[in-house]
Amino acid sequence: MAMSPRQFGSVFELQFPQSVGIYGSYADAQKAVDFLADQKFEVQNLAIVGTDLKSVERVLGRRNWGTVITQGLQSGISTGLLVGLVTLIFTRPSSILLLLLVSLAIGVALGIGFNAAVYAMSRGRRDFTSVTQTIATKYEVLCEHKVAAQAREMLQGMPGARAAQFE
């Protein structure tokens, strides 16, 4: 039986959710849910939601023509090999080595060419490489309203729960 898009989306929705705890890390929120599971609480009534999102960009290094060409070479090699292998699957070439070498050469040329063109068009506006990640600063455990009070009460019995209240 296939799920419709509406049914799949409802997996992430709770009816009238209420907060039963806010935690400083995902691991702590996961421990709370695991504790409730160990206490035989119906955990399908819970959701862990990351809140207070922030975007973190980690600068990895300076970008120059050397790094641009190296990145183009790397992407070109993988693209060329992939195209060569796909071509090999669907055709019967007279020389497999020649097919792979030509595909590799075309991939490298295109990879370096596209990377160089993009870098030249940027005109020095972004001369660094980086990776970006969105992270949550808090994790909230939500619960269906009809069993939220029970979950809160059970979490009070979790080891370290009293100490966490005073932090």
Walk me through what this model shows.
The chain is of the alpha+beta class. The chain folds into 2 domains: 14-55 and 134-147; 64-126, no CATH class. Helix content is 51%, strand content 25%. The chain is built from 6 helices and 3 strands; from the N terminus they run αβαβααβαα. Strands 1-3-2 form a 3-stranded antiparallel beta sheet. The longest helix is centred in the middle third of the chain and has 27 residues, at 96-122. It is elongated, with a radius of gyration of 26 Å. Mean pLDDT is 87; it is low at 1-6.
What's the short version?
The protein has 167 residues and is an alpha+beta fold. The protein has six helices and three strands; from the N terminus they run αβαβααβαα.
